[in-house]
């Protein structure tokens, strides 16, 4: 794929994302789901109204900025309401989120490209992200979760760019990575998991290097075969150099790998043509750089984010407000339907067994105006259903989980097979690009999902957004591997998976955009009772 077509593909993905998020943005002239909090909070900053917020304030700043800019644009004010505390058009408190959410597929594509330098992988990652329903819904309303994700992803992209550079340019990108990670935490505390993923992959890189050095040092000092090989080298003298000169590169490389105890095993699933990856440079970052760029800078950014809010509401100081936030979350109750009908524990997220309705309203006909507030009509009276469902693309999520499990299996096999085949512990000097990608995706997925295992408060499917983004990257990697395969069956599999994901997105689009559906059309899309 040429650079020109790559850029055209990225532009097409962005236009698709933009169109889906901005179309009919003002259709529901009300506050949808948590807009009752975040849209009001954003407006409170403009009206200088003190309030308590159970989350850090950055996303509300962004929404407030969007309201202020939108109020000065002389368009899209056909519908207005006073639900935010001021007379506002729904477009004014939603458009900035829609614009921000449109960039998420591009950032995902940028991460995929930076991980592998494969344009096909990057385009697939961006396309699949653009075809997810939960991200589409969250981007179309004045909610906060897209800001956690985009800032966390930017932190990872900047980190990868830093690893791909040296000296001042590396420091430049590391500063931006620290700023982005701090902004993610400044949106919600669970943005911290993006930062923890960066630390974990850095630790793993050091462990791999240390284990390799230890294993090779042990082999060098203790292996009788190497001592014997060393004696033969001294006896052979120049004859060995002559033999290496005529030996094939593959045989020579294999001999050298056996000398130093490096495994020559490679997985059967399309090995990478290159072993270069920015992640290999992780060990070039020492602990002081990590603590400064990805410790002190994020903490500093997080702290200054609070200044405008604490100037507005002086009820609590910096420490006291965090104590109040923690107290609020600890008293939200257990994670069951008794607390909230859409409570969904972490293990229900990967298979999407409990999505949630953000907006549900019925009408007698398509031309009938919807009420600003109020319950839907009785079941027998409503002939048209408007449902905005916070639900991912089912097949994208399900295929993605399978791809993530495949990556786990690939990593385990690469660790176990050398032991099975050669009966000794062998550590590769360098890992392939695909091994690094597997480590990166699995570690960051776990870093964003595992902390929720111990959370006992009521949580919802949107808390999975930070983790599922790595699922999208995993299925994009798998499909890309299939499409680049020599085997026709694998190429057909890649095309089939892509087609199913795109078709599923189109099929469920009415409940992402809140399009009018008949009761039968609505039931057709609610495959399981737990989805309703």
Question: What would you note in describing this structure?
Answer:
The chain is mainly alpha-helical and 532 residues long. The chain is built from 20 helices and 3 strands. It has helices spanning 3-22, 35-47, 58-71, 95-116, 119-130, 133-139, 145-163, 167-185, 192-222, 224-236, 238-246, 249-260, 287-305, 307-312, 318-330, 394-422, 433-449, 465-483, 488-513, 519-525, and strands at 356-363, 384-390, 516-517. The chain has a 3-stranded antiparallel sheet with strand order 1-2-3. The longest helix is centred in the middle third of the chain and has 31 residues, at 192-222.
Tell me, briefly, the overall form. globular
Largest sheet: 3 strands, antiparallel
Percent of residues in helices comes to 55-70%
Poorly predicted runs: 219-268, 270-274
Our Rg estimate from Cα atoms comes to 26 Å
Query: Strand share of the residues?
Result: under 5%
Distance separating the two termini: 43 Å
Number of strands: 3
Strand order of the largest sheet: 1-2-3
The helix tally amounts to 20
Briefly summarize what is shown.
The protein is mainly α and 532 residues long. It has 20 helices and 3 strands.
What's the structural blueprint in terms of helices and strands?
Blueprint lengths: L2 H20 L12 H13 L10 H14 L23 H22 L2 H12 L2 H7 L5 H19 L3 H19 L6 H31 L1 H13 L1 H9 L2 H12 L26 H19 L1 H6 L5 H13 L25 E8 L20 E7 L3 H29 L10 H17 L15 H19 L4 H26 L2 E2 L1 H7 L7
Antiparallel strand pairs: 1-2, 2-3
Index terms:
3-stranded antiparallel sheet; mainly alpha; 532 residues; 3% strand; 20 helices
């Amino acid at each position: 794929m040429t650079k020109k077509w790559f850029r055209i593909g990225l532009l097409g993905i962005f236009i698709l994302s933009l169109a889906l998020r901005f179309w009919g943005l003002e259709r529901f002239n009300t506050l949808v789901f948590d807009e009752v909090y975040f849209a009001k909070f954003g407006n409170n900053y403009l009206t200088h109204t003190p309030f308590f917020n159970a989350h850090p304030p950055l996303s509300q700043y962004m929404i407030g900025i969007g309201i202020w800019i939108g109020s000065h644009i002389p368009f899209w004010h056909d519908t207005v309401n006073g639900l935010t505390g001021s007379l506002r058009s729904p477009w004014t408190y939603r458009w900035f989120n829609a614009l921000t959410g449109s960039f998420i597929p591009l950032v995902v594509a940028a991460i995929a490209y930076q991980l592998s330098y494969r344009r096909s992988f990057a385009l697939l990652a961006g396309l699949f992200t653009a075809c997810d329903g939960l991200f589409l819904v969250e981007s179309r309303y004045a909610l906060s979760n897209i800001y956690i994700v985009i800032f966390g992803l930017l932190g990872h992209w900047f980190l990868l760019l830093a690893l791909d550079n040296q000296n001042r340019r590396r420091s430049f990108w590391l500063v931006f990575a620290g700023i982005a990670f701090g902004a993610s935490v400044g949106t919600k505390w669970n943005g911290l998991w993006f930062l923890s993923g960066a630390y974990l992959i850095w630790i793993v890189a050091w462990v791999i290097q240390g284990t390799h050095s230890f294993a090779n040092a042990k082999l060098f000092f203790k292996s009788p075969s190497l001592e014997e090989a060393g004696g033969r080298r001294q006896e052979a003298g120049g004859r060995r150099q002559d033999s290496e000169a005529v030996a094939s590169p593959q045989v020579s490389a294999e001999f050298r790998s056996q000398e130093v105890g490096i495994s020559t095993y490679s997985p059967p699933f399309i090995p990478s043509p290159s072993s270069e990856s920015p992640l290999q440079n992780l060990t070039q970052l020492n602990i002081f750089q990590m603590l400064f760029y990805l410790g002190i800078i994020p903490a500093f950014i997080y702290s200054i984010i609070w200044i405008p809010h604490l100037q507005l509401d002086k009820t609590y100081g910096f420490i006291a407000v965090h104590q109040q936030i923690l107290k609020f979350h600890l008293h939200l109750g257990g994670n069951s339907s008794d607390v909230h009908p859409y409570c969904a524990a972490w293990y229900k997220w990967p298979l999407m067994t409990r999505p949630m309705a953000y907006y549900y309203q019925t009408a007698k006909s398509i031309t009938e105006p919807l009420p600003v507030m109020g319950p839907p009509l009785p079941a027998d009276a409503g002939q048209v259903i408007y449902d905005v469902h916070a639900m991912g693309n089912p097949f994208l999520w399900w295929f993605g989980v399978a791809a993530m499990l495949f990556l786990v299996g690939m990593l385990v096999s690469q660790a176990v097979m050398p032991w099975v085949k050669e009966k000794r512990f062998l550590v590769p000097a360098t890992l392939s690009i695909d091994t690094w990608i597997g480590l990166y995706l699995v570690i960051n997925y776990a870093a964003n999902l595992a902390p929720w295992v111990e959370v006992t408060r009521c949580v919802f499917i949107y808390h999975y957004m930070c983790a599922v983004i790595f699922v999208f990257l995993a299925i994009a990697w798998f499909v890309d591997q299939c499409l680049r395969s020599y085997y026709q069956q694998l190429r057909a599999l890649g095309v089939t998976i892509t087609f199913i994901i795109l078709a599923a997105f189109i099929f469920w689009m009415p409940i992402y955009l809140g399009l009018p559906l008949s009761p039968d059309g609505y039931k057709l899309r609610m495959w399981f009772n737990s989805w309703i």
